[in-house]
Amino acid sequence: MLSLYEIKGGYEIEEKLNRICKGLSFDDSFLNKDFNMLSGGEKTTVMLGKLLIDAPDVLLLDEPTNHLDMEAVEWLEEYIRSYKGTVIIVSHDRYFLDNTVTKIIEIENKVSKTYYGNYSSYIRQKEEREQQLNAYKEQTKRINEMERSIRELREWAMRADNNKFFRRAASMQNKLEKMEKIEKPVLKKNMRLNITSGERSGRIVVQATNLSKGFGDRIIFKKAEMLIQYGEKVALIGPNGSGKSTFVKMLLGQLPVDFGVVSLGAGINMAYLPQNLTFEDEEMTILDYFREDISILEGKAREYLAKFMFYGPNVFKKIKHLSGGERVRLRLAKLLYSDINLLIMDEPTNHLDMNSIESIEEALAAFKGTVLLISHDRYFINKICSRVIAIED
Fold it and tell me: Which of 26, 121, 281, 345 is disulfide-compatible with 373, CB 3.0–4.6 A?
C-alpha cells in the first residue's frame, strides 16, 4: 500500500526543488541569504518558487513576471504549460499570456467577458468589436433617417387627410420595430500621449568607455563599452542583478564609477522614469503635485491630466491613495510636460494596464528623440526598439 509520503510526491521533492531553483536562478549563495535582507522583487520570486513546490490544485498568479528576468519568464511559461492543475493568471505581459493561457476573462465596465484562445486570439476578437462599433454607427444613422421619414409621413397624412401616408408610416414603423438592433460596444478610454521632442541633441547621446564597476568582491562591469546615437530606440536587457539599473544610475551620476567613463552627449534634455517611484509628499493631490514648479492655470492643468486618464474630481486624490499604475501615469504626466530629446525608462510597463502600455507604445513610436529602456516585456521591446544591448556574463 502506498504511503502518504509517496502519494504527496515525497520521493520527488529533491528533483522538483532542484528544477525550480535552477529555473528561477536560485544558486547556493542566494538560498543561504536572510529572507528579510532580500529586495521586494527577490522576495516575490522566492514566494513564487514556494508556491510551485507546493503544487496546489489551483495556482493563482498576480503579475508573476514583474520581477523575473527573461530566462526565468521563459522557464515559467514552460512550467505552466505542463502544469496539471488549474492556473489563473493576472498579467499585462502579452507574450507571457500568448504562451500560457487558453482563455481570457476581461473585466470591463463592471462586466466580465470571456474570450477563448490566447492573447493574440483575444486581440483579433477585440478588433471585431471595432467593426461592430462601425456597424452600430451605420445602423444608428439608418434608424434616425427612418424615424424622420415616419414623422414626415404622419405630418403629411394629417395635413392631407390621406390614409395612404398613414399606411406607409405604419409599414415603416413595423420594419423599424422588427429590425435586429446592433448592441453598442463599449470601448476603453486610453491615454492620449504626445511626447514633444525638444531641440535635437548631439549625434552621440550615451557613451561608456572602459567602464568598470563592482560592489565588494562582486564585479558588475569590467571594461564595458556602449554607444547610443541620436534617434535610436534601445532596450538594455539582462538577468536580474546583471547591472542594468546600476548602469543607468552611473549614467545619471547617482552612483560613482570605479574606473572608466560613462556620459551623456551634448544638448541633452532628458526625462527619467525609475523602476521604484517615490514621492516626497504623499499628502499632495494629483493636481498640486503636477502644478508644483510648473507655471500653468488649473483649468489647463486638468485638461492636460485628462490625457493621462485623471478626470474630474480624480485630480484631487492624494498621492498616498494612488495605485501603482496611477503613480506611473502621474510621473509620466510630469516628465512629458517638458520638451525632451532623451527618455530613459526602467521597467515602465510593470504596473500599467494594457491600454496604457499600448498608448505609450504609440507615443514612443512617434517620438523623434532617443529612447533607452530597461525592460523584460518582450512584446513592448519588439514594438519599440530597433536595437537591443544585452548584458551577459
Answer: 345
Residues 358-373: tens digit of each pLDDT = 888 888 888 889 999 9
Sorted by sequence, the CB contacts under 8 Å of residue 241 that are 6+ apart come out as none
Show the cell assigned to 104.
481570457
- In this structure, the strands spanning 342-346 and 370-374 are parallel
Q: Which three cell numbers mark 383?
A: 514594438
What's the angle, vertex CA 372, arms to CA 263 and CA 292, rounded to 5? Answer: 85
Beta sheet of 259-264, edge-to-edge order: 218-229, 204-215, 259-264
Q: How far is the CA of 146 from the CAs of 135, 142, 160, 289, 320, in angstroms? A: 16, 6, 21, 52, 53
Give, in degrees to the nearest 5, the angle at Cα 80 between 77 and 81.
Answer: 85
Provide the edge-to-edge strand list for the sheet that holds 370-374: 270-273, 342-346, 370-374, 233-237, 387-390
Distance CA 382, CA 237 (A): 12
Let me know: does 327 contact 319? Beta carbons within 8 Å. Answer: yes
Contact 335, 289 (CB under 8 A): no
